[in-house]
Known about the structure:
The longest helix is centred in the first third of the chain and has 34 residues, at 7-40. The chain starts with 6 loop residues before the first helix and ends with a strand. It has ten helices and seven strands. The chain is of the alpha+beta class. The chain has helices at residues 7-40, 57-72, 77-91, 118-121, 124-135, 146-154, 166-176, 200-211, 222-234, 236-239, and strands at 43-48, 51-55, 184-187, 244-246, 249-251, 261-262, 272-273. It is globular. α2 runs antiparallel to α3 and α3 crosses α7 (166-176). It has a four-stranded antiparallel sheet with strand order 6-5-4-7, with helices on one face. The chain folds into two domains: 48-176; 183-273, no CATH class.
Amino acid sequence: xxxxxxxxxxxxxxIVTVLAVGLTAGxxxxxNRVTSFTAATEGCKIxxxxxxxxxxxxxxxxxxxxxxxxxxxxxxxxxVVIAYATAIQESKLLNLPFGDRDSVGVxxxxxSQGWGRPEQLVDPVYSSGKFFSAxxxxxxxxxxxxxxxxxxxxxxxxxxxYAQHEGNAEILAAAFTGRVPKAVHCWFPAPTGKTPLPGAxxxxxxxxxxxxxGTTLNATSQKHGWLMSSWSVAHAQEFGLHRVRYSGQAxxxxxxDRGWQADAQAPAGRVEIS
Length: 274
């Protein structure tokens, strides 16, 4: 026998359904706003004329180190592109303390294969140097397809996987090598002051370690100056920097949408950090 419902019951069911849908939609919108707000509180954006990328701050730090080590060795931008594509595939540009079998670090290098000790390989300066030392031994690496050059260094299970990251690697290389000015912007909440941060002197020392140079931050060229500026922006949260100034531009971390701003007092011949 078919059961019939009164108009009153049907009306109540409709109201309950509408309320449930409305509450669910409202919750999802709120959740999305909370997630977006949380995600926007810190991060980095890399912008060049042909494209842009968003990175976590740790990823930007790793990218900055790779470019600095390449500059120390006077390597071409193509070497940096190959390194970035490899690091994206191997670790998503993160300095991992673990990996497949005994692999560790940005490039997932294995101590058992002669790359170095585990504690060395989780130092991005060291691991980047080892990667580039192997890359320059690859004959005609600049002319090889990217995945072939990377695979000759890494000897991974699937060397073709490196190719998919070439476009993003080119964006990163243009920015972090300093070829494109003002390309790196990071933002994060102001330090609370409860935990002392290393400061500008420590930042200069660490950059000098990657570049193999002194701590004066004197720029030998516009490109060199923007490389040091990009490194400083990427590491600003770690060292407690609140301003980077170079070549008529200044960066501060407070806003995600302002980026570099004109500053007539910013010197052209050196990078200033504070």
